[in-house]
Design a protein that fits this description.
The chain is of the alpha+beta class. Among the domains are: about 120-225, no CATH class; about 240-385, no CATH class. It is built from 15 helices and 16 strands. Helix 7 (about 245-255) packs across helix 8.
Length: about 450
């Protein structure tokens, strides 16, 4: 038999072809996997975009919902009752929204959901240094810098410092609380404190510097620029000016009858004894604010409550910068003239125990007494109210499957008689603000 030896060149050629085929196959598989992964990423990106757009639309729907609530339930400065509207996990098709509020007890470890009353804060355009100095971590220099920033008479004491920063004080009223970032001496510790995402609670990623278990906020939490109160009825007619003797007498008579009206009005006339041998004279008591009017009138708190929504001081269409003593925190109350931490907490305790006695500012006298130093100090200026016409709706939303997180803060103003959005800010950049419980629920792991 004639056997031929194997041809090494042919075997080498077949091996090379096999390697090339394997490489081509590997390349094709790699390309297929690459495109499959790219398409999967595109699908996830598209899904996330759809979820984000659904969340955006949920926020728009939420803003309309809040408009409806305020139009129907917040008339004449009354704060909407949380039992009359929904603020947590409100469905909008496949999306949901939450309105991030503040817990009035201040003890929650998860966010509280409600509207926020802007009148529960200090107005940066009207608070003096004596009030601002009582805010947490405030320094005399920064309090003066705030007043200097809004000073319409031109740059003041801080102008030399601002020149180093390349700009001058605004010399005009604050338009937003965020302008505090530009005031000389500001920093994020002072402005936001421990509550980095500004949701009112201490989240897992936030540092509890003083180890008190709570998120100690900064100035953003306690300040506003939006508070103003109309001095007119819903039909556009002016409220009764308590300095107009004839008008206030007519109002009192219509409410309490002629005899009681005369008793009240008599308290605004003081008899002044003249020198020996001369007749005594009378003078009218000057009234500069409603608390002073109430103290002088001798009315009971229930009587005053009957006319409180119908009276004002002055003839301007609006009054600015009052603090709502029905909703302000103890921290804000303690900043007002004559107040301290103990007195502020006394007021908070009183309103918690007497929720049906808060119809007018007269309750502060019931709580503290007419002769109390704080009451007498507050009667020297127009500082307090029980009406609110501006509300914050801090709306966070999730799209389908708990994805596409978005957050937008709105401020609604009712002072013109119709609901208007006067401020809008995207806060999505601050990260998750709905707390641990909502996050676990979205993951399908609701804690027992």
């Amino acid at each position: 038999m004639n056997l031929q030896a194997p041809n090494p060149m042919r075997a080498s050629s077949r091996g090379s072809v096999l390697i090339i085929v394997l490489w081509v196959a590997f390349g094709l598989v790699s390309i297929a996997l690459y495109f499959a992964d790219s398409m999967s990423a595109e699908l996830r990106a598209s899904d996330n975009q759809v979820c984000g757009e659904a969340a955006d639309q949920a926020i728009e729907g939420a803003s309309r919902y809040v408009n409806f609530i305020l139009t129907n339930d917040a008339t004449n400065g009354v704060i909407p009752d949380l039992t009359q509207y929904k603020a947590a996990a409100v469905p909008v098709n496949d999306a949901e929204f939450w309105i991030i509020g503040r817990n009035p007890t201040g003890t929650s470890t998860d966010p509280y959901f409600s509207l926020i009353d802007e009148a529960s804060k200090l107005n940066l355009n009207y608070a003096g240094t004596n009030v601002l100095l009582n805010l947490p971590n405030m320094t005399p220099d920064f309090a003066q810098a705030i007043v200097d920033w809004r000073n319409t008479n031109g740059p003041g004491l801080s102008s030399l410092n601002y020149s180093l920063l390349g700009y001058l004080p605004k010399s005009a009223p604050f338009e937003t609380v965020d302008e505090l970032r530009l005031v000389y001496g500001s920093d994020m510790d002072l402005l936001v404190g421990e509550d980095i995402n500004q949701n009112g609670v201490l989240d897992e990623n936030e540092v509890d510097a003083n180890h008190n278990g709570q998120a100690d906020p900064g100035l953003f939490e306690y300040c506003t620029v939006f508070t103003r109160e109309p001095n007119m009825h819903s039909d556009g007619s002016m409220l009764t000016n308590v300095t107009d003797r004839a008008a206030i007498q007519a109002l009192l008579q219509s409410q309490f009858g002629a005899a009681r009206a005369n008793q009240i009005m008599a308290r605004f006339v003081i008899r002044v004894q003249g020198p020996r041998g001369e007749r005594s004279t009378t003078r009218q008591v000057t009234v500069n604010n409603l608390l002073q009017f109430y103290l002088q009138s001798g009315m009971t708190s229930k009587e005053f409550e009957q006319i409180a929504n119908s009276i004002t001081v002055g003839n301007a269409p609006y009054t600015y910068g009052r603090v709502n003593i029905n909703t302000a925190s103890a921290t804000v109350l303690s900043c007002l003239p004559g107040m301290d931490v103990g007195t502020a907490q006394q007021l908070v305790n009183y309103r918690n125990q007497n929720p049906n006695n808060l119809g007018s500012i007269a309750w502060i006298v019931d709580a503290l007494g007419a002769g109390n130093t704080a009451v007498q100090s507050l009667a020297q200026g127009d500082y307090i109210t029980t009406h609110s016409y501006q509300f914050t709706a801090d709306i966070a939303a999730l799209g389908p499957h708990g994805r596409g997180y978005r957050r937008t803060r709105f401020v609604f103003d009712l002072s013109t008689g119709t609901v208007r959005i006067v401020y809008r800010q995207d806060l999505s950049r601050l990260g998750w603000a709905l707390g641990k419980t909502v996050r676990l629920a979205m993951l399908g792991n609701v804690p027992k």
